[in-house]
Amino acid sequence: MATQSKTQYLADLQTYLKRRYKPKTAPAPARLPVIDAVVFGICHEGATREQANQALSRFKDQFSDWNEVRVSHLGELQEALADVPAAAARAQRIRKFLRQLFEKTYSFTALDALAKKPLKEALKTLQAYDAFASDYVTATVVQQALGGHAIPVDEAARAALEKLGLQEDDVPTLRGLIERAIPKNRGFEFLELLEELAQDAAIEHDSKAPRWNHSAKDKDAKPAKDAKPQPKKAEPAAEAEPVKPPRDSKPKSAPSKKGKNKPDSK
Q1: Which of 120, 146, 232, 234 is the most buried (most CB within 10 A)?
Q2: 26: confidence class by pLDDT, cuts 50, 70, 90
Q3: CA-CA distance, 10 to 8, in Å (whole number)?
């Protein structure tokens, strides 16, 4: 049997999750303004999509604009975050982002121009804001506002995949693997399925759920960059052959004693 790659495993997993959760076919949502996408990403990481959508709606309904959010007390922001877990920490992150944005641009629409720039250039600009230290927020903005291919992965989704045997060193590495396996036109669907998976405690005990085989050699694996070549074993030295004299050389003869010490003739 041919060895299954991780990309093939993820494709098979998507097929299985579609059968398990039976999602409704819906088009991908319209792009959000960059600020909305940042706030949505902060609200969504470690929470459900419904909780994040409700929080974003409350910010829109309860505040006149993002500048009012920037100057409001944290308690007012926490009220908007209502049922979202860790509301206090999220409120601080949202207000800090808005304050950094205002200090840098004196505007709350300046970032919208990034949607028309090359993705790498846009991301380089956004990395100046602390909110983008989160890989989840970065991927959310790429997908929801910049039109790039990204599938946000939080710790809940990572833990769910680990229960099925798929492990990577960190979230960005796992996200990169998923994005190579799942094409852009199926990315939003896979994200919704991944969110369902993260909330499904029963899947760990489902014998029909596809599991990544750790013992299999992964065809997607790449050699480590810092791997050092193993030194070659030294071959045994060949025995020295006896030195032969040149063919033209002749042994020197001893000097003749003829004529030496002859008696004087009389």
Answers
A1: 146
A2: low
A3: 5
Q: What is the pLDDT of residue 28?
A: 74
Give the Å distances, CA to CA, from 108 to 67, 68, 76, 100, 254.
Answer: 8, 11, 20, 11, 111
pLDDT over threshold 50, residue 262: no
Instruction: Kindly report the number of other CB atoms within 10 A of residue 190's CB atom.
Output: 22
- Per the document, the length of the chain is 266
Q: Give 42: exposed, middle or buried? Use CB within 10 Å, 0-12, 13-18, 19+.
A: buried
pLDDT digits (tens, 9 = 90+) for 31-48: 999 999 999 999 999 999
What percent of the chain lies above the pLDDT cut of 70? 78
CA nearest neighbour of 33 among 146, 185, 184 = 146
Q: Distance between CA 101 and CA 129 in Å, rounded?
A: 8
Task: Give the whole-angstrom CA distance, residue 31 versus residue 110.
Answer: 16
For residue 87 the two structure tokens come to 């509301």
Quickly count: other Cβ atoms within 10 Å of residue 85's Cβ.
Answer: 12
Give the SS3 label for residue 259: coil
3-state SS of 173-237 is HHHHHHHHHCCHHHHHHHHHHHHHHHCCHHHHHCCCCCCCCCCCCCCCCCCCCCCCCCCCCCCCC
